[in-house]
Structure formats: C-alpha cells, structure tokens
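Practice record 12: protein with zinc ion.
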Amino acid sequence: MSELKLMAVFAHPDDEAFSCGGTLARYAAEGSDVYLVTATRGENGDIRDPGLATKANLPQVREQELRCACEALGIHPPRFLDYLDGQLTIVNQGQAVGKLVRIIRELRPQVMITYGPDGIYGHYDHIAVHRWATIAFGLAADPACFPDLSTPCQPHQVSKLYHVAMPREMLPFMSRDGRPPSVMMDGAPFPMVTYPREQIDAIIDIEPYVPAKIAGLMCHATQVDAGETSHEAARFVESPMTRHEFFILGRSVLPEPAGVEKDLFAGLR
Ligand SMILES: [Zn+2]
C-alpha cells in the first residue's frame, strides 16, 4: 500500500481543532501525511483579547494561529483558498471547486474530511465548503480533467469523504443553563446539530492525542476567552469528545463497512 494521506477541508482557522484535531494529530503521529485546507483566514472572527490583534491585522494573526495549531497537531502547514470569512456563499463556486480539485490531484489523499450538510450549526461558510468539497471529491476523479481542460491532468479518486459529526450525547456537556447549545449568528441562536449513535459511521479513539488537540485549540488565542479557558477546558475533559471523535461517511467508493469503523483508513491499508 502506498503512503496514507488525509486531507481536511474547513472554512475558518480553529474549525479543524474543534471538530477533529485529535484525529488529525493521531494520523500524523502514526506516520500518515495529514493536510489541512482552510478557505479563509477568519478575518470576521472575534478578538476576545484586544491585546492580541486589531481588525486590520486579524487575518495575519489568525493565519499564524492556524500555523501554530498545525504544528501542535503535527500536520503539514495549512493551505488557504484565500477567500473572505463570512462571504463564501457569494464566492464563485466553480472557481472554489477548481481550486480544491487541483489540490486533491496534487496531494492525492485517500481520505478527506469536511463538514456535513448541517455545517455543524448551519454556518453558511461551513455549508458552502461542504458543497465544494463534495463536488470536488467527484470531479477530481473525472478524466475530463476539469478545471484544466486544455492540459493533461492526472485525475485522482479519493476513496472516502467523511463528515465531522457531533453525537447526541455531547449535548449535556455543551448546553449552558440547561438550554440546548447554539451559536449566535446575525442575532439569532443557531442550534448545534447532533446525531444519534446509530447514524455515526466512524469513531476514532484520540485519547493519546487529547493534549495535542488542546494545544491546537489554545493556538487560536484570539478565539479563546482567557477568563473562560479553564472552565471550558474542564468541560472539555469531562465530555465524550475527550477520548473520541465522530464521523459520518458522506461519500465512498469502497464496499460498505460492516459496522462502525475505528479507522478512517479502514479498507485502505
Ligand atoms: Zn467555522
């Protein structure tokens, strides 16, 4: 078997750490090539501590935070699609898909990770990236060679595309004041989307990599409220996510797995 490669595609710096940092760290530690593609530099995000960044330099600061997170997780430096945070729904979709297809053909991963159609909590940037990654999964293998129609290309068939998924039993650990967890967007609380266990296709044991995951999270200093850090760390350690990360198989060209997978490269080793 050739070397194993994993490529994650997300919208904002810190999405990788929250949703699958332990999995990325695990496969990197086990010797796989782990790549991260991030669509934006998170320039629309919070600055929890005004000493860390200004609105003007936030893109540079968050790029450095993401580079720090990739180092903490032991994965390759991030690649950016160079779009603007909060504007992915008005990006030229063909251009974005073309960028992803070229990266897939260059890096040639067997497995990809992105958001599900839920966008975790309906974030429109996440949903846009889900659509681009799903379409690129198919087109990268197309011998018609979009988007490089006039030049010879080397199509690449990614074997599996996983969606990050939150299991329903995470809810009690994430709710505040007994209310279901949600994320404020444009003044409305968008609920976090969770799934019952029977819909989860892969559960990855990340216990040895929890410190790397937390280190990756802490790199995103502008996004972490200093006063909340210890509180959130305690909740995090209590949660099932401490030891496992969860995925739904969105696309696959392999035979259907017999049960819940414990390895994203199952069937490929
Ligand atoms: Zn995000």
